[in-house]
Structures are given as C-alpha cells and as structure tokens.
Amino acid sequence: MDCMSASLDFAVIGHQDGWQPISSLINGIRTEQFEKLNSNTIRNIYSFIPPRDIFRIIARSTTGKELHGIYIETFIDPDKLDTGHQRINIDKVKDAVSFVNKLGAKIVTLGGFTSIVLEGNLYDLPKSKTVYTTGNTLTSAYIIKGIEKAAAFCGKDPNQSNILIVGATGDIGLACVQYFKNKCKKLLLCGRNIHRLRQLALTLEDQQIPVHYSVLLEKLVPEADIIISAVSSSGIGLTNYKKGVIIGDAGFPKNIESSVECHQDLHLFYAGMGQMNGGYSFSPDYTPFMYRHPAPYISHGCVIEAMVLAFENRYESYSAGRGNISISNMEEIYGLSLRHGIEPAPLYNGKGLWQKT
Amino acid sequence: MEILQHAPVTRESLQVISDVFSQAITGELIGMSNFASLAETIDDIHEKMEAVEHADSERMHAEGFLAYSSKMKLDININIGGEYWGNVRKVFLDYAHKKDFISCLIIQEVMLESFAVSMYTDVGHALGGEAGRLFLRIADEEREHLEHSSDILRAELKENPDVFIRKFEELHFRCMNILAEFTATTDLRGHCGVCRGACMKESLHHIGLDIISLRGNALALYARAMDNIGIPGEKSIVWIACLPA
To answer: Which of A18, A60, A250, A337 has the most crowded Cβ, counting Cβ within 10 A?
Structure first.
C-alpha cells in the first residue's frame, strides 16, 4: 500500500455473485501459465482470502475528466449471503473498510451485500477523510428509468399498471415506492418483515394510495403488471405471473432469470445498471474474465454513483441509512450522471440486449 | 490423560496428535537452523546476536514440544530432510549462502512464521488443555517474530519498491509453492516423511480440525502479513491465486 503513489478518487468495495464468475476470475488471474483450478478447489480457498485491492480503475467522463479508482474484493462466499452468515460477512466488510482507509480513497461505494453496514448502521465506519456511500440513490434512479423505458418498449403504461416491489422496505425498494406511489394503478409490496411492511402500507393508505402487501411473493405476483425486484438474497422464485409482465431484476446476484418457468411470456431486464459513454478501463485488465454485459462500459448504479460524485468533486455520503432516498435526490444524481455521459444501460438480460420482435 | 479438551483420546486421535507434534518439532528445528544460518549472513554484531537469540527461541519451542511429547509418550518422528521441510530449508540456504539477509527474513519470518502462527493457533484451540496452551503460547511468541520483521521489511519496501516486490515474488514462488503443496488437501509431492503412517491431513477430524480451514487460515495470515508490509493487493492476489492447490 505504501507503494501505491497515485491518489485515489474513488474505491469500490464489492463481492462476486456466484462461483462461476469467481472461477473465471481466479483462473483468469492465474493466467494460462498455470493449470486451471476446478470450482471445488477454489471454494476451499476463496473465502479465506482477506479483502484486498485487485485492480485499478480509470473512469472517464465525456467532459474529458478522468478519475483514478480501485476495486476492493471482499471475498465473501456467494453461497453465504443470507442472514445466517451476516456476522462473518460484516467482518469481511469491516476488513475491507479498514483496508480502503489505508489506501486513502476520497469516496468509497459499498456494492451489493456490503452496503448493509451503511444501510443498517450495523457498524460505525471509522472517522477519516474517506466518505462512504451505498450508491443506492443512483441505482434506484436507474431502476426507475429502466422500468419506464421497458414499459414504453412494451407499450405498457405504468400509471395503468399494478407495480409489485419485492424488497419494498429496503432502501432501494422504499425509493421505488416513493417514486411510483403516485404513478401506478396499485402498489403491491413484498418484504420479509411483516411489521415494516404493515407500517409502510398504513402510511401509503393514509395518502390514499391503493396498496396490497404480503410477505408471500406468490400472493402478489398474479396481480402484477410490472415487478421490481430489489432484493439481494437468492431463492426468489416467480410463478403464476401475468402474461407480458415486465420484470426489472435489481438484485445482486440477478437470479430471477434462472428461476422463472417460461421466458416467452415475460419481459425481464437487469435493472439498476448504467452505461458510461466516456468508458473505463481496469489495470490489470481482468475484463475478459469478469465482464458479462452485452454492451460496452456497463456498470452497476452503485459503483457509478461514487464516480459521478467524484467527477463532481462532491465527496459526500450521498446515500446512507435506509429510507432516506428522496425523489429530488434521485433526480439530482441522475442529472449529474447524464452530465458525464452516463446513462441507464440499454435493456438486456442474460440472453442479450432486448430486441424488437 | 489431559490432551483433548472435548473428546476422549482414541488410538486415532493420539496418532494425529503425535503427527501434529512431529510436524511442529520439525518446523521449529528448521526455524532454529534457519536463524542460525541467518546469523552467518549478518555483519552487524548486534543483529548477529539477535539472530542467534531467535535461533535459541526456536530451539526452546522445539524443547517445549519435545518435553510434552515425551511426557505424553507420543510417537514422534523428526525429519528435517523430508520432502517439504527439506526443500524449504534448501531454498532458505540458497539465500543464506548469498548473504541475502532480507530474503532470509522474508522466508523465515513472513512465510514460515505466518503458517506457524496460524496453524499453532488453530491447533491450540482445537486441543485445549496443556497441549493447547503450549501451542497458543508458542504462537504468541512466533507472532512477535512476524511483527518485528514487518517493521524491517516495510522500510526495505519503501526504499526500493520495485526491487523489493520482484524479490518477494521470486521467494513466494520458491517457498510458498512448497508450503502450498505441503498443505494441499492431498500431498502434491508425495509423503512428507514426518507423519508416521498415512498423511495426517485425512485424520485431522479426530482432533476437530480440517486441512481446508488450517490452510485457509494460514494463507489468510500470510496475506495479511503481506498487507502489513505494504505489498499491493493487486500483486498479492496474483501470487496467492497462482499457488498450487
């Protein structure tokens, strides 16, 4: 770390979303000089590795401005993202935070599961010049823009649609609720915590918003015209959905696709993603082993939020806590991202870009 | 016999414990020999005396393990020329003969001590009782060696980062490859020459341990030791990822 001389505008703390991407990355790092390791061998070692920087990032704005960043991998086991392993995962995030503090990045985004420490105030981040953001505000803005784009693509009017938000009481879910509560026919809310769901539904009912809620997803899915999945946990299964339903999968990992019964009757896209027209590059360049998007320079909204704030010299904890994302914040950060040539990603899923049939 | 904290001592567990002590004693004797050789490489008389003192400290650790083994009538086999320990010693001597003090320090104090501290800690917690306390006490003393060397190596890295990192990388692939092969789920180069019967890794469960955790924790401590010295993560991850597994 001492020999890392260039100052860091931003850092990303993250984790991989499955063993296949991990195998690809580790074998990519090993290079062709060494024999490929099988997935089981990698599983035996991977999550023991303490968090560390694995590549540097140069991010470019279309204004010509360039940022220097770094990616910190937490080496969290992707099979252990559930609440049963929360303590060990939070310890990993703490280690990553302490690592990034030594590197002295000006702003750090906590990607995927790692945002939990900032969302839930589960850990007092160290007092330093480094500021932290979950990146949830820009992620939420991109989800919303994606849903509107997808609806237009499919000839569907959100105002005439029942919108189901899975993970409705989480930070991103709440941001989507705030945005769509006056822009849909009915809100359908799903979450794990019945007390929080009930409280949210009561608040919305007080505002004369039509709402239906349940902890059981299968009770809500048949009514939904549009589904936003803002949950990070695995095991989200969708059955009995309406023909032609639009699904924005904003989870990490994006695992709805693999659990739906039939792909012909639905329109699924990966939500919360942005595309940086100014481009970015990694050093060492692990993109051949990591990049899985069907168009160039796509990244997660949470990562891009830190970059946008750094482009703007606004080193502030823009997204923190739960339920603090306002519509005006989403509009502001979205506007700032556009200023640097960063737009919502084109609509795509695991099969590629959406095509007009 | 107070040797295992939770489970009764069986023939199988006693054999594993014997093998664990045999490995620890052999490792300490390698450390003792390495520090003695290290003393040869140093011109400064104070540092020379310090190296001899470290060698003596490793000797005392070996004595401690031997004394306990003798008391418990463990079946001990010491082999400092075995496949893995012998090769680690050969690599060390290559650098000692060149009077390359820094390389010797990296091999002994960072690579070998990381593994010793981590594995002694895991073994200590698993065994409990007098044996556990012995392992934990020695782990603490070895940890001091690790921390002491980090100060010297940090300064060395600062002075000439590129040269230092190239040197570290070379040592990593020479020494850590051997340790990685040694601690893989199966011995990648054959029997170690220390365990009495078959490889003890398959029997560690008898004392509440497993090689995956032992190895993982050891690699983690080694990774942290590299962080503490100031080796960039983007380098250390490549080195770790490229180890035999």
So the answer is: A250
Contact B227 A50 (CB under 8 A): yes
A212, A186 Cβ separation under 8 angstroms:
yes
Question: In which residue ranges of chain B is pLDDT below 70?
Answer: 1-8
CA-CA-CA-CA torsion sign (A269, A154, A295, A134): negative
Report whether A161 contacts A192 (CB < 8 A).
no
SS3 B137: helix
Question: Are the Cβ atoms of B241 and A4 closer than 8 angstroms?
Answer: no
Spans in chain A with pLDDT lower than 70: 1-6, 122-123, 232-236, 261-263, 357
Task: Name the residue of chain A whose CA is nearest to B215's CA.
Answer: A45
Token pair listed for A238: 């969708």
Cβ within 8 Å of B, A 282-341: 284
**Residue B50 near residue B145, CB atoms below 8 Å:** no
ω into A344 cis (within 30 of 0): no
d(CA A131, CA A147): 30
Q: Do B157 and A41 touch (CB under 8 A)?
A: no
Tell me how far apart the terminal alpha carbons of chain B are, to the nearest angstrom: 37
**Alpha-carbon gap, residue A122 to B156, rounded angstroms:** 39
